[in-house]
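Complex record, two chains
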Amino acid sequence: MRFRLTDPDRAGRAIDCREADIDPSRVLTAVRDPTDDGVRCRRATRLHGTLGAVGFASSPSRRQTLAAVARSRGVRVPEQEALAAARDRLASHATEPTNLAPEREEVASANDADRAALREEVARLRGVVDATRGGDGPIEETLTEYRETAARLSEVGTTATAASERLARERERLSERYDAHQRRLELEDAVANRERDVRRALADRAAPRVARARDALAETTPVDPESDRALQLAALRAARLSAPAVVAGGSLDASVLARVTDASIVRCRDL
Amino acid sequence: MLFVVAYSRAARRTLRNLRREHEETVVREFGRAALLEPTGHGALLACRLRERYPDAVRVERTRPFNEFAVPEIHEAAVAYENEASKYTPYARFASGTDHPDPDTLRDRTLDAGL
């Protein structure tokens, strides 16, 4: 790899940048992001997310770590077929939208304050018309206004009824669609369960190899074999990772880390 | 109250998180469904869920149920529970009595006020 976050650049399998005081997260981004020119190296795979960062705030679970080791070595387990089948079932399961927001909005707006205001206005005009009826009869303008307002109120009422009926009809129609959504949730759960099966099976397959790596590590370094760090380093040793691993903190320097993990390493300062 | 049902894993996860964060508003949680208080805050949570998962969240408004507002149905139920043997279907129990038959019950829509 070529390490370009320091001046001058450095090259090699084991790079120590502790004294440069670069944020370890910055280094990690540079390794993982193929468009980031800070570290030129082989492209990081998805497994780098599980195995490629040692000594960072969040570390993956033991099972995730072991499963990633198996994946990096191309191990296949029969459980993967069941997972593929479950994913196919989910992918081919169609659901239709159940969102009725437009229909609800129509109902709400057809019933809003305008209608009440219109109703009041009709009542008021009606009063005016009635009051003038005894004398010379209502003024033609008032009568016309009253009729128009009443017609508008009735129109708004019709719209509101139609909107409510449409919403009720759509709700009824959608209740079947919810069945399909419910089925999709079950299929999603099935996929998650099969993924767990695969992880467990892969982890079981990798466990002996990682245990041996941990023993080897304990013989040659002072790292506590029961620690998370020992598991992560042993996993690195057992895995086949293309991009360099980024190690923050700890007692080992870059060249020792590269030797015991048999991986290319960037050794950073503590977080 | 507001009855919220989640129809995806993501929506279900969010619903569970809401229960943890807003115990005062999420009255009860049943796996992937929950009852929210009929308050502005309950409405806010329901609206947020709808906004985030327009097709994976169903929201209904519930009302307390008063059996005494549907006396003939209530009486039929009480009689059926107390008088019929365990193996008598309701249809057989109701036939020849004043109790409503199953078709009548199915076709009857409850008043909005119940």
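Note: The beta strands of chain A are 2-3, 10-11, 14-16, 39-40, 53-54, 245-248, 265-268.
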